Amino acid sequence: MVDKIECCECCEHHTELIERVRKSGVSKERLYDLAELFKVFGDTTRIRILFALFKNEMCVCDIAELLSMTHSAISHQLRVLKQAKLVKCRKDGKTVFYSLDDSHIETIIGQGLNHVSE
Amino acid sequence: MVDKIECCECCEHHTELIERVRKSGVSKERLYDLAELFKVFGDTTRIRILFALFKNEMCVCDIAELLSMTHSAISHQLRVLKQAKLVKCRKDGKTVFYSLDDSHIETIIGQGLNHVSE
DNA sequence: TGAATATATGAACAACCGTTCATATATTCA
DNA sequence: TGAATATATGAACGGTTGTTCATATATTCA
Q1: C1' nearest to CA of B93: which nucleotide?
Q2: Segments forming the whole domain that contains residue B87
Q3: How far is B101 from chain A (nearest CA, A)?
């Protein structure tokens, strides 16, 4: 794959196509970040948490009850979601309320739901 | 977590919230499918392949050259993308051309790019 | 037909990831 | 202050996943 000559015939034919993508302006690094973002969406627990927060903010305890999972598991996932800037939190006494951080999130999940609903 | 009484105080307070999410009409199963979909987007190689196909259909060999990866690795990932109905293929002689299967895909990736571009 | 080419696929290995368990921190209230 | 409660976190374990390697299939063309 070092050189076009050593590659298959096929590659010689579509060099222009390849160059076009290379010059598209979206860097490999940005696509890497994008994959990281989708990786966060790509877990059942986290998607269910995000979906729960569509309507209202919720505390760790509520989410744990809703999903029938331990507080610890939920807390770990909320940490991942927070690092990805998908949720934010607000502390009220002992309780921490989580909510969606961004309106993009509903759009992304909405489009995904369209796709899986076909 | 069996019973509201045995749960924390907090849960008692937000039972209505929990019920509202439970009755939202989107099932656990559909959210599971949604996570599966995003899981497919959540890999650098696959995202780069999908992005490459934004502009044009491409053969396995072109994609391998573009990403500097082996034909085998690309072929394996194209299989995953095809199973998820994100790409479709067309055979022309020895060559197999892949393209995006659905217009939702560009929207989802576009929204994702918005999020990571902040 | 047989060599060359393009793609597909099964097995295996390493790396990654989500949960659990134990424990720590933070806050309230008696 | 000390008990009780809500959340956070580190370590560890088991399961998943992406790549590589070897090999198989399919197609063209001499």
Answers
A1: D27
A2: 43-117
A3: 11
Q: Could you read off the pLDDT of B61-88 as tens digits, one per residue?
A: 999 999 999 999 999 999 999 999 999 9
For residue A23, is it within any domain? no
Does A110 reside within a domain?
Answer: yes
What is the C-alpha R_g of chain B? 21
Residue with tokens 């990571």: B116
* Residues 99-118 on chain A lying near strand C, CB distance under 7 A: none
Binary contact (B38, A33; C-beta < 8 A): no
Confirm whether any atom of chain C, the nucleic acid strand, is less than 7 Å from CB of A70: yes
Query: Tell me, what CATH number does B72's domain have?
Result: 1.10.10.10
Do residues B46 and B80 lie in contact, with contact meaning Cβ atoms separated by under 8 Å? yes
Q: Does residue A55 form part of some domain?
A: yes
* pTM given for the model: 0.90
pLDDT at B34: 96
In Å, what is the CA distance from A99 to each residue of A13, A36, A54, A58, B13?
51, 21, 8, 7, 17
- Whether residue B27 is contained in a domain is answered as no
Q: How far is the CA of B118 from the C1' of D9 (A)?
A: 29
The total number of structural domains in chain A stands at 1
